[in-house]
Automatic annotation (TrEMBL):
GO terms classed as biological process: fatty acid biosynthetic process
Catalytic reaction annotation: a (3R)-hydroxyacyl-[ACP] + NADP(+) = a 3-oxoacyl-[ACP] + NADPH + H(+)
Species whose genome carries this gene: Helicobacter jaachi
Protein's name according to its UniProt entry: 3-oxoacyl-[acyl-carrier-protein] reductase
Gene encoding the protein: fabG
Pathway per the UniProt entry: Lipid metabolism; fatty acid biosynthesis
Length: 247
């Protein structure tokens, strides 16, 4: 895969899927900006790992759901590199419970972390990339935003919102040569899914035609494709990475 741009910011990249996206994109020759919020030691270790392979990485600390922090972080990146070519809005949380027991605070916490952070990132990318007349953004939504799930009304709303919002950004970005797409992972092995009860995980497995849980690398390669020149004519699209769990 080839890339017209040079650098990429990945939010929530200190661990899990975000960390793998950083490694994979660095391997394709991009300078990766690793955003972290609370675990500097993990972010440092990832940066070291990427640099040990002869690739480029830098750290940027901010909470992606806080507008002023996100904007300040982007300012540092643009002042350093002169550009922001690619953005991956990956930061996300869950706070699962049945809707009957879900408070408005439970609902809002997930909307803030997942949907609001993504909105801020897309809007600011549109401003920066608009001046460059080039850019590509990938938002990490979820299979749950496509089909819903028991105990995840807040998470489903946030991820479904990301999908609809990305399409709206795709309309606004297109005249400026900026693309917005989503990846919707299914069951990917990570800290987030390790929290699930074994019987819940087994139940998912029964319904995955490719008969394995996804790896972070499966998601990272889909992200790389949607950022790269190979997808130059694709915008407003949703790429499912779920082993056939939801078609
Ligand atoms: P994870 O291991 O829990 O990692 C999530 C990362 O997001 C953490 O580094 C976390 O940082 C960061 N983060 C959360 N809120 C943030 C904020 N406000 N600002 C900055 N960073 C923030 O989860 P994961 O499984 O890798 O998930 C990554 C993304 O994929 C999420 O958007 C998730 O919804 C999506 N996804 C995952 C799966 C799956 O099966 N794993 C499936 C579908 C979609 P802290 O450690 O500081 O909180």
């Amino acid at each position: 895969m080839t890339f017209q741009g040079q650098n990429v910011l990945i939010t929530g990249a200190s661990k899990g899927i975000g960390a793998q996206i950083a490694k994979t994109l660095a391997g394709y020759g991009l300078k990766v900006w690793i955003n972290y919020r609370s675990k500097p030691e993990l972010a440092e270790a990832l940066k070291h790992d990427i640099e040990s392979s002869g690739n480029k990485a830098a750290l940027i600390k901010f909470d992606a759901s806080i507008e002023a922090e996100f904007i300040a972080g982007l300012k540092v990146i643009v002042e350093s590199d002169g550009v922001l070519d690619y953005l991956v809005n990956n930061a996300g949380i869950t706070n699962d419970k049945l809707a009957l027991r879900m408070s408005v605070a439970d609902f809002e916490s997930v909307l803030e972390a997942n949907l609001k952070s993504c909105f801020i990132g897309c809007r600011e990318a549109l401003k920066i990339m608009g001046k460059q007349r080039f850019g590509s953004v990938v938002n990490i939504a979820s299979i749950i935003g496509e089909r819903g799930n028991m105990g995840q009304t807040n998470y489903a709303a946030s991820k479904g919102g990301m999908i609809a919002m990305s399409k709206s950004f795709a309309y606004e970005g297109a005249p400026r040569n900026i693309r917005f797409n989503c990846v919707t992972p299914g069951f990917i092995r990570s800290d987030m899914t390790d929290e699930l009860k074994p019987e819940v995980a087994e139940n998912y497995m029964k319904n995955i035609p490719l008969a394995r849980f996804g790896e972070a690398e499966d998601v990272a390669q889909a992200v790389a494709f949607l950022l790269s020149n190979a997808s130059a004519y694709i915008t407003g699209e949703v790429l499912k990475v779920n082993g056939g769990l939801y078609m």
